[in-house]
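Task card 7
Instruction: Convert sequence to structure tokens.
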Amino acid sequence: MLVVGLTGGIATGKSTVSSLLRAHGLPIVDADVLARKVVEPGTPALAAIARAFGPGVLRADGTLDRAALGALVFADEGKRRVLNAIVHPAVRREMVWSVLRCWWRGERVCVLDVPLLIEGGLWKWVGKVVVVYCSAEIQLQRLMKRDSSSREDASSRLNAQLPIAEKVKYADVVVDNSGSLQDLERQVDQLVQRLLKEAGWSWRLSWLCPPWGVASAVWTLAWRALRRYRKSGPRRRSSSRR
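Output:
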């Protein structure tokens, strides 16, 4: 099974691409959905959050008060680290189980929709990285229109994130969402055909013979790591000369 990491920047259209891929029948593992799931009442992560930040972050019905928690961690990097140390491992475990369920069903391709795929290092653990891109100016204009925000506020939000141009450097496939919806749909159609072709026939062998699937996954990740090392070689030599 080919595991694809899908990411982008705020207002680049990643969610639209994710919906189009789902419409093509590809299973989507949405990190944002899982992040809400792992802090539902009764979960270990929610209990850990309550212990770390106090009962004030819980509503009367036992659900997480996101506004109260956000007020605590927004301006405190130390508290954000504590929160991330609780939530991120829980989300990653759910992602692994979701991928395994896709494999168990015999899916050829599984798409991980992860906003922080690059920042969190998860891009190293997928077979293909797809980045949804648009120019920085288009991104800014779309964000201003979407949130009815000023240019200054929108720029501030964008500057707090890894620039989309940096994310593109990690991409195996770039979906350019600078044009119309019809153009985007055409690119997604082509992407689906490419992914299904690259999944090939080996997905069936991996499903029928789990040891082969494990070996194939290890080989794919090792090969990608070797390619990254070769690509970074010239950059390392260039920086060492400075």
